[in-house]
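Dig into my protein:

:::
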Amino acid sequence: SEHLGRPELIQRAQRMIDWELSLQAADGAFPGHFGEAGSHPVIFNQGQILHGLVAGHTQLARQDCLEAGVRAGRWLVAQQDDDGCYRRFEHNGVPHVYNTRATWALAAMGVVANETEFVAAARRNLDWALTRQTPSGWFATNAFTPGRDPFTHTIAYAIRGFIEVAVLLGDERYLAAADKAARGL
């Protein structure tokens, strides 16, 4: 709310983090769909939560966010196939290029926690995503379901993941892929 001051916002953020941390499984996964019976982890959602854990550690100096983030990152690395693609724990059971937004969080946690395997896994995912880019800049397998067009937000997720990892790791290939996709769009 615009009537809340900074201390109140920080308290709310702290409570939200406490709640989120209470949901993490022993293997590092978080539920993919909150409130649903039998909710299974989802790669993209795990990345979204990992963004929050990076922020909780870097902006609020919470060591528990770093520790939970490392567990979450290890879970993400364990789910990745050798070619860098995520095929398990995917929305609708199909791979998605927009997971580059999730692997941006994995790369960020890798940098913050000095976990080189996280950075390597993020690169593998983006390298796989590069194989899905057409000459026009379009990304195949970027929609929620096969054979359908992606939504603009999934296109933006894919592009943003490439941009942010390019900046974070200084990799021009990823910036070029983002530029090509944006120009094609």
Notes: The CA atoms of residues 107 and 169 lie 8 Å apart. The chain has a mean pLDDT of 91. The longest helix spans residues 43-60.
